[in-house]
Amino acid sequence: MIYLFIGLFFYLFLILFIAWYFGDIKAVFKGDPAAKNIVEVLFYPSIYAVSNYRIFHVLYKLRIPFIPRILSQLVRFLTFIEIHPGAKIGRGFFIDHGDGVVIGETAEVGDNVIIYHQVTLGGTGKEHGKRHPTINSGVIIGAGAKILGNISIGENCKVGAGSVVLHDVPAFSTVVGNPARIVKVKEQNTESNFNLGNVPDPLMDEYVDLEKKIRSITRGLNDLREETKKIVKK
Predict the structure, then answer these.
(1) Does residue 155 sit in the same domain as residue 221?
(2) Sheet of 120-122: strands edge to edge?
(3) For residue 81, which of 41, 51, 40 has the smallest C-alpha distance?
(4) Within this chain, do residues 59 and 146 fall inside the same structural domain, yes or no?
């Protein structure tokens, strides 16, 4: 029994050391105001999924067969987060909540990226080689978003919840909807507008603009009708 506790202690120490070294613990405190202390961080599935991935990625790079993939599936079973050991993930990576997240083999993720639950960085099923997206540094991806294919999401972009992104997104942009539409944001720093609940809705903006045009046309027709009545009376 004592060896079990020693092994568990060593495992937790290794996981926390990896998470500290790569800045993942700092990312948790930065990305989730609910994280108050290191004890609470121990219960975040993101820490275990990402730290284990970093171990498995080394084994994958050493071309060790089967073992990295099998271990990653075990972690998937325990954390409900699937990260293929072949993916490339930068520093300061945080998966908030984590349930249902899938990151494919050829996906690339930059530094200081935050993604929420039910996010998929997947392929379209029609590509070979590099078939998963590249997520550049500073990107925030909302819950349920699907980013599919060999596309690039530029630095400091925000992907709204439930969006389906199938094409490249330029830096400092916000995408929302299915299929996703691009909305330029003025801020050159995502930290100044972190709340994903504040993302613009281009469809609503178009609806409001269309409604204004209809009202303007209606007023013009009413004025024309009144002028016609006056001419007929004369």
Answers:
(1) no
(2) 81-83, 101-103, 120-122, 146-148, 164-165
(3) 51
(4) yes
